[in-house]
Structures are given as structure tokens and as C-alpha cells.
Design goal:
Length: 421
């Protein structure tokens, strides 16, 4: 090949390289279009039907309705990532009070529907099944209806899980045991539903009653759905305890109370929950009955306003003296965290919740973190632990043990006898 041809080929090659480089320099990076988002989609598998609906529809349900209306009235929640306020849109499936259905629907909400926020299922057994799913997908999970006595050991490995409700050893039964012993109670009989709730409460009550010197004269496990309440109460009456504990859900607590009245079973203290904490239990026959409760209208002006708003929204029978005082702060924590971080990123929100003291209706509100993992709303934040019906009002007779603790009345022991009419 001649030198002339080689020179021409070299020039052509150089020109080609130059043109390629010029083309590469002229190419501008493609900017993806901004994400258009107008709503925060909140997913939940809830018991809209079935027995658990007697809890969910009078506990977190009214708080969700109230919060949605408040957010709508404010024009949405401001999210800096999108530079505007976003409305909240609830996507709620009916789990029919069935655990397997709830698990399937939870996976659907996260994987298929890709919700922005996951709200909790209802019931201790339900949240214990749902929490690991939320944590697996790294979805921030703030619980509502459901205790977590046996969940504490797993919280170090579930950093996205935060429990909000007060429960057996957080710090209800310790307060109850001290109250009962101080009042003169020395024996107790327990009826425990054959479910996570009943197992946890029966176990903790055994420990705490023994701690203060109250003898357990009966500790009976009953089916989740008993066929006959007459023998249950007859056995308790025959034991003649100072204290009767009905650790079951509303469909157990209400018939047990009615059967106790029918048989004239009048222990010094009759405590039932959940069920007695809902204001649909509040009839003249409820006088003196003890329940688990956190706040009432007399706790503070803010709580008076909360319960007035809820009563206007869902009716007086759907007020919940135990859960709603803690679920109102829960939705506020969600909103404050989104607005403060400016994002819906779950990991960012999780870290903010874990490290922040919030200013809520409770006062200073924060989580006790377990081993660098998940947390529980600190029991020092609870205004109250134990309630008692007195003159048609669920009074707080067992105050919380922290700086937020407020009792609204003295504990009455023994309770008045059941009315005979």
C-alpha cells in the first residue's frame, strides 16, 4: 500500500474519531419527567365485618375518619419531595376478621397496590402476624389495636415496627395489681380467651398478682367463641374471689358481665377488656366495672376537644377510652414525620420516628427502642392505665407512672352490686 493511501486512511480515521467525540459531547443527559403525585395512598386490611369489627369500628376506625377529614380540610399534607400538599386516600380491604385473609391482603397492598403508608390490622394476633411482613418490605409500621407482650423479644430484629397501644405489662397490670392490693383485694379469678390476648394477659396478671400478694384461686382458659357463659361464671362465683378478670374480646366481656349480673356474682372488682373500654358498654349496669383506659374528657382540655369531635363524628357509643387517646397521637406522628422529613421514603421516616420526641395530645411523646430495632410508645407517656365507670363516666382511676400521668377519680372498691332490674 502506498504512503499516500495510508495518509488518507489515517486522516479519515482521525476525522471519524473527532466526529464521534463531538457527537458524544453534544449529547445531553436525558432528564426523567418529574413524578406527578396528588395523593398519599394509605392501605389497610381491616375487620370491616366479622367479630373483630366490634373492636375496629369503635377504636382506630373513628380516628382514621377524623384524621382524613382534618387533612382534607387543611388541603392535604405538605411533602417537600413533591413541592405541594398531597391529599390522603385510604385503600381499605375487608379482612373479614380472618388472619389468613389479612396476611394475603397485606401482601397485596404492599406488592401489588404499592401503597405509600401501611396502616395496621386489628387485634393482637393480627398485628403479630402483620408486623414481620411490614418489616420484610421495610414499610414503617405503627400499630393500633393490639398488645405486644410477646413481641418485645422480636422488636430488636424489626426496626420498622412501632407499637402504640398500652397493654398488659406496658403498664396496665402492674398498676392494677398495686391498686387492688392497696384497696384490700387478696384473691383473684381469671378467665382468659384462648388467643394471644388472653394468653398474654393471663400470664402477666399471674406474675403481677403474685408480686403484690394476691392469690390466684382460678385461672381458666375458654374458647375464643364460647357456646355457654353460664358455667363460666358459675365456676368463678363458686371460687368467691375478691377480683374477677375477664381477659377477652367484646363478644366475651359483654355476655360475661350480663351473666355475672344474672347470677348475682359480685366480686369486689370486676374487670373486663377489651370491651368494657368502649362506651357502648356504658349502661347503668356498668357502674363500678373496671376497664383498661388511658384518658377521658377530664384528663385535659385537648382530650375534651378530641372526644367531643369523635362523638359528633361517630356517636357516643363509639368512644374508646383506651385506644383512641393513643391512636390520635399515632396519626399525628405520621403526619408530623412526613412534613418534617419532606418525604414518603420509609427508611427516612422510620429513623425520624425512632429518634424524635413528638409534641402530641399526650404531651411529650416518644418511643422506647429495643436493641436498635423497633419500639413501643413509652409507657411514661400514658396519662392513665386503668378506668372505672362511676356515675356514667369512665373515670381514670389508675394513673400512668410517668410525668404525663393523670387520674380523674379515686378507685372505688368494692364495686356496687349489679342492679337487679
Amino acid at each position: 500500500m502506498s504512503k499516500k493511501i495510508l495518509i488518507i486512511l489515517s486522516v479519515v480515521a482521525l476525522l471519524a474519531v473527532g466526529l464521534l467525540a463531538a457527537c458524544e459531547e453534544e449529547e445531553e443527559p436525558v432528564t426523567p419527567p418529574p413524578v406527578v403525585k396528588d395523593t398519599i395512598v394509605i392501605g389497610a386490611a381491616r375487620p370491616l365485618s366479622g367479630p373483630w369489627s366490634s373492636i375496629g369500628n369503635s377504636a382506630l376506625g373513628p380516628i382514621m375518619t377524623m384524621w382524613e377529614e382534618e387533612v382534607d380540610a387543611a388541603g392535604g399534607i405538605y411533602v417537600a419531595d413533591y413541592g405541594k400538599k398531597l391529599a390522603v386516600d385510604f385503600l381499605i380491604y375487608d379482612d373479614t376478621s380472618d388472619l389468613g385473609t389479612m396476611v394475603r391482603l397485606t401482601e397485596k397492598l404492599i406488592v401489588e397496590d404499592e401503597v405509600d403508608i401501611l396502616f395496621p390490622a386489628c387485634g393482637s394476633s393480627m398485628i403479630q402476624a402483620q408486623a414481620p411482613i411490614a418489616n420484610k418490605y421495610e414499610m414503617l409500621y405503627l400499630t393500633a389495636e393490639g398488645g405486644a407482650t410477646t413481641m418485645k423479644d422480636s422488636l430488636p430484629g424489626m426496626p420498622f415496627v412501632f407499637v402504640n397501644l398500652s397493654f398488659s405489662d406496658w403498664y396496665q397490670i402492674p398498676v392494677l395489681a398495686d391498686m387492688l392490693y392497696a384497696a384490700g383485694a387478696r384473691t383473684a379469678y381469671m378467665v382468659n380467651m384462648a388467643d394471644v390476648f388472653g394468653v398474654e394477659y393471663g400470664g402477666v396478671a399471674t406474675i403481677e398478682f403474685n408480686r403484690v400478694g394476691i392469690e390466684i384461686v382460678g385461672n381458666v382458659t375458654i374458647p375464643i367463641f364460647p357456646d355457654d357463659f353460664e358455667p363460666i361464671i358459675k365456676a368463678a362465683k363458686d371460687a368467691n374471689p375478691d377480683v374477677f378478670c375477664c381477659f377477652g374480646y367484646p363478644w366475651i366481656v359483654l355476655p360475661c358481665a350480663a351473666e355475672s349480673a344474672a347470677q348475682g356474682f359480685n366480686p369486689g372488682c370486676w374487670i373486663g377488656g377489651p370491651g368494657a373500654n368502649f362506651n357502648y358498654f356504658n349502661t347503668p349496669a356498668a357502674e363500678g366495672v373496671v376497664c383498661f383506659a388511658v384518658a377521658n374528657r377530664a384528663t385535659s382540655p385537648d382530650f375534651a376537644a378530641l372526644f367531643d369531635k369523635l362523638e359528633a363524628l361517630v356517636g357516643v357509643e363509639n368512644l374508646d377510652w383506651w385506644g383512641q387517646p393513643l391512636y390520635a397521637p399515632m396519626v399525628q406522628i405520621w403526619q408530623d414525620s412526613i412534613e418534617a422529613t419532606g418525604t414518603l421514603d420509609q427508611a427516612t421516616l422510620r429513623d425520624y420516628v425512632a429518634t424524635t420526641t413528638f409534641d402530641t395530645i399526650l404531651g411529650p411523646t416518644y418511643y422506647t427502642i429495643f436493641g436498635g430495632g423497633g419500639g413501643m410508645m413509652a409507657y411514661e407517656c400514658h396519662p392513665g392505665e386503668i378506668g372505672q365507670y362511676q356515675n356514667g363516666i369512665c373515670e381514670i382511676v389508675g394513673a400512668g407512672v410517668g410525668p404525663n400521668g393523670v387520674a380523674t377519680a379515686d378507685f372505688v372498691y368494692p364495686k356496687p352490686v349489679w342492679p337487679t332490674e
